[in-house]
Amino acid sequence: MSLFKARDWSSTWCGSSEEEFDYGSLSIANIDNDPSQFDKVVVGSLNGIIRIYVAQHGGFKPEDLMLEMQLSQPILQLKTGKFVSGTDQLHIAILHPRNLSVYNVTAMTASVEHANHFTLSLVYEHRLDRTAFSMTCGPFGGVKDKDFICVLSMDGVLSFYEQETFSLQSYLPDFLLPGPIIYLPVTDSFLIATAARNLECYKHHTLASTSNEGKGSSKKATCHWSKSVGDHILDINIVNTSQQTMLIILGERSLLCMSTSGDIEIMKKLEYNPSCLYSYTTPERPDTIITLVGSHSSSLLIYEGIQLVWAAQLPHIPVVCRYGNFQELSGVLVTLNEYGHLYCSYLGTDPSLFVAPNVETRSSNFQELESELKELNKIIKDSNNGAGKTALESQKEALLMSAKINDHLDEISQVQLDELDSEPEDLPPSITAKITLECTSIRPIESITVCCSVKYPIITSQPQKNIPILGNKGPVMEMEMFFYTLGDAMPSDLEVVMTATYVSESEAPRVIQTSFHLPLNLICNGTQPVKQATHKLTIDTNKEPVNLAELFPEMVDDAVIPVPVLGLQYIGGPVVTILSSKQSNRYRIQCDLFEAMSLVVIEIMQRLRSYFEHNKDGSKFKATFQGPVPLNEYFQLIDNHFEQRLCMENYKEMLNQRAQQFRVIQKRLLTRFKDKTPSPLSHLDTILDGTYKQILALGEEYENAQSILTQTSNSLSNGTRLVHYLIRLMVGMNEKDYNILTSSLTHVVVESNEHGWEEMVNSNISFLLRTSLAKSIKEQNTSLPTLTMEKDTGKLKRNIALMCERLNKGASLSKSQSIEKLSLSNNKTPELNQRLRMSTSGTIKEETE
Predict the structure, then answer these.
(1) pLDDT at residue 96, as a whole number
(2) Exposure class string for 220-254: b at 16+ Cβ within 10 A, else e
(3) In the chain, which end has fewer C-beta atoms inside a 10 angstrom radius, N or C?
(4) In the prediction, which pLDDT does 784 show?
(5) Cα distance between residue 582 and residue 592, in whole Å
């Protein structure tokens, strides 16, 4: 067990996973006024449920929950104090959005021997005129043995209640957003954190003098002193030492110690993101301020002053931290997270009861050692070959995820009318998938994030979902999401990747993935074929042609009737025509748009392979492409994408120039406005207005260019996948070489500020030409070119053409070729060289059937 972990004393989960908790949801006090003076834990959720626990060592037991009651409104904050007149006993004040209620907690002797139980009875209640945010309590005005309550509303009004009686109401000046509030008894004043990152102090008598008893005035209070903290204040604590009273303030990136007059005594910059604060002193060291700070990295940091003395790891991210004295242990740290995990712990180390045994000496048996060494070597060899499971593979996942997509499209499209500017009858089709999450661990899993990744223009209804907690071993959670296409670009991939991230029991981040493919009819519809097309591809097979209606039953009305010609139309896009030859085992795919044939070619090949594997007629299905690969059409896609990137760079440069010009004009105008003797503007205001309009116009042009770049990226991705597949069919490429080809000439077109697709692909292919595709040893060079943006795509196109030529001559991407093999490929017959030559003339010769 790690030395720097908080030691578990007692812990439990409050309520269900649907409940939420905040910084005001926890209070530690002797709420039942027990003579033993031991504290109880009071927890109230935003769902309106209050619970009282008696914390005991040894883990949570059912009898530790002494009270659980459902209230009518959400619980914003809990406070304990002397809120009832005529008695000095502690009562609990509960702040609701529109009510302030004070309850009495009484311990009742149980009918069983193991525990007592509590009852909660309402003493009095105040109706609030305004929506409450938080409250503070204390002996306002210097009263003795009484606690009054001050409620801060969402619109900056302080309402004071002297126990059962409403006292006064005061308005805060220049109020924007509510912040932490606390009462300072030493100076009888209130400290309030403002949205301007200031800490303001208001005297109680000042607020009383500006009170609004008739509730019709708008007179505002006057601030006694104000101090700029320079940070957004998360919480404020007051600590009384033997010498003075100090203010401990927690900001988003700082921890401050201030005097009661507003002077900053100590300040410490934090290098982490804090979540909660609690400060106190101990009777043994009354002059030492101990500060507990919880962080979003699930750790608790302990400071003496500003010096960090200890850091302990917690099992959750605390939103509130308190300090309590219980029956079996004093000084227990109590933390609560936003999902209701209540954790009681202590700091320190546990004594180690393990004693290392004495080492037994034994005589060496060389035969046994040799056999053991052989066995270990065999295990290592099997692990390297994949025969044995590694430790990572054998580790059982605490979370399992599976996905199942419907067999048919949704009868009624799930696309909302406000998502697309279309009529109800023109909405694109949608399909629903069911994602299942199953928790296999004993402990609940927190902070699960499920992300869905699809390629544009396919859209999902739920790209990301955050699951706060998934309960104990066995619970299964299901969620549905639907997919549809926008139709304004060419889809490049139908694969959907689901990724779930969570934190395991060993506090290590874990990632699981699953994937599935969307059906073709989500983006295509069956239509009339087109006889003439600009681009045509012919693929030969070793099997007789199959009825196209049987291959694409979802695209035709009757799949029994033989269909030799089939038309597929993309939603909002072109028509792709598929023709099957009657005299030869050939299929022709043609379309007016080159990149549109990519998904159709890959889909028909996969369906043919699945069809013949299912029929099991003996021989293996094989498809070939006689060539040539249409590189000119592909190079046109590369040029379009590169030109659009240059256009984007020009717009960026122009925007930068106009923005710099705008700032210069602003500085000159500001200088003239500050001058005591103003000089004429000399039309600077007109130039400023014109520059502003130019920036807006350039911004719109940049957005339009970005949209066009997305479309050209999708087209380039489709064209690249088609070229991959045609090269594979033409040269009979194995799986290993095909993986290298798709990784080098990648179809994933992602733009970044540093480099684009052209630079990465040019570097990859240059490396292949210098290594595995090199003609001789002299050409081999493992150095990579720099990833710089070229002026044009000439070098990239030459490298792609050269790579295709060497692949045609028998080169392999997975290993270096010998000079003799390449020379033999160059001595082929002229007829074979003519057939295998990679033509870049741009014309695709039609083969007669």
Answers:
(1) 95
(2) bbebeeebebebebbbbbbbeeeeeebbbbbbeeb
(3) N
(4) 63
(5) 24
